[in-house]
Amino acid sequence: xLHEFTLSRGRAMINFTLKYCDTKQKLLSSxxxxxxxxxxxxxxxxxxxxIYDHYVKAFKTEEDFIESIIESFKLLTVFNVEEVIAVDNKxxxxxxxxxxxxxLIDLMGLFWKKLERYTIVRxxxxxxxxxxxxxxxxxxxxxxxxxxxxxxxxxTVNGYEQRVYRQMTAGANASLTLxxxxxxxxxxxxxxxxxxxxxxxxxxxxxxxxxxKNTRDGIFREHQQNPLENxxxxxxxWFVFPAKVGSMLTFVYFHKDxxxxxxxxxxxxELAKESEYIGKxxxxxxxxxxxxxxxxxxxxxxxxxxxxxxxxxxNYCDDIDYFGYMKKMLLTLHNVKQIEHRNxxxxxxxxxxxLKNGKESNIVIMGDSGAGKSxxxxxxxxxxxxxxxxxxxxxxxxxxxxxxxxxxITGYGTEIGAFVRIDDLDPAYAYEQLDRxxxxxxxxxxARVTIPISTYEVIMKGYKVDLMLYxxxxxxxxxxxxxxxxxDEAINIFEDGARKAKGTTxxxxxxxxxxxxxxxxxxxxxxxxxxxxxxxSDMKKDGVKIGEIHTSLxxxxxxKDGPHEAAVELFSLINE
Length: 576
Hints:
The chain has three domains: 5-170, no CATH class; 181-340, Phosphoenolpyruvate Carboxykinase, domain 1, CATH 3.40.449; 344-416 and 453-575, Alpha-Beta Complex (Phosphoenolpyruvate Carboxykinase, domain 3). Helix 2 crosses helix 3 (49-59), helix 3 (49-59) packs across helix 4 and helix 7 (98-114) packs antiparallel against helix 8 (135-158). The strands form five sheets. Strands 21-17-16-14-15-22-26-23 form an eight-stranded mixed sheet, with helices on both faces. It has a seven-stranded mixed sheet with strand order 7-12-13-11-9-8-10. Strands 1-2-3-4-5 form a five-stranded mixed sheet. The chain is an alpha/beta fold. It has 17 helices and 26 strands. The model is unreliable at 126-132 (pLDDT under 50). A hairpin with a 2-residue loop joins strand 8 and strand 9.
């Protein structure tokens, strides 16, 4: 990142490497503050015409109005109102209607708070710069500087100090340290080599963001040409998040205009250590937000067999401005790779439960979006006090099954976090996540929160499967748990992948997708069919119970009670 400050698409980025403001005068004299005032005045012209017209008429031009805001703010941090007017009488315009000026100051503060704000430090080599000792401290000091400057201006104009203070996040919502590192870059991807890697992420929750889209549409198809060959990314516009998606080392390149999705990865996937990617070749590369000139959405993957790298691609357009396009492409890439490795991807949830009587069980609940897998976990959590001594979430959307050397089938996760609908969480639990969640479009349908729920060590430990259940969200049933002795019947239910859509995508009504997993198995169906029969046969031989759990999630009036009732019945079965 070469500029000290950029502002676009409601996102402000402040480069601490080039400019770090530690006094009020430095802050108010900075290029970044001027850009913020310019953007604020443009928003006034659009949304607060009366206020805009009043001041532009008084100062003759918009440029003079902007300069007068900046200069008067500088003076107000040092002098009282009378002294400011004495410096230059033109500033008296602001104090002729003091209430209007206070409203202007408040509106500017609100405008700044509504922006997504990021601070960045870039180091030319590891161990340099602010990040090792002072990065978090520098962000805390910057937050306090912005807050104290704003309050000083308010107090000076009012003529008295405030008596109630609210310690809000006035600096950055999130902060990144970047390192320039070398990785084993094939010649085809030399245009990616200069992009800095994210080494540290600091999030100031609650982080609330608004995106252009609120649902995801379609599936990702294989492409026959490499979309990354010969492209060159501008190091001023791009970042790399080195993620561990399950067992796959993944380099996620994202454009700065989709910053919230890149930062959201920190709550969802393990951030790799430098030793895990310096000089290494990744399993997966995903480029998110490349401006290729196409107006329509282009999202696909390509198998680079020569370099043994799976490539994901999403072009720059408003349609991809939803975290689902970041998360689900990465999971698709992961699953395609796991199928190549003869492992079976599972779209669902897995939990390790230890009951109060000491009995332990590892449960896999499989189902596509809206089937009730996450809601079942919430129901388990709500029953914690009555039944459970301990509960570990192995995965809460995507995982994979692996055949171990002793022949047992074990489950592994892909994510350390979850991207879940706020409406489907218990309200108390949803509010408990305020101190660590990234909230997206919280006032809209399909509002989401990305929260950490596990550790990488837990999801990659490997847990032997005891129960394998398909989440049926659309059939009424008095018996919530049904097991099948006929393996072919069970496989048909799992492969049919039926569920009633709940609005998490653009689908409606009763829909089906092969193996309830449009993120890999649908694209690689022939290979997956072989694996399904192998794994289900091995599980049956190993005594794993295979069946359905009726969540009733899509049945009118059952969205809350259905998963709860199913969880109670499941615990009774485990307890037998």
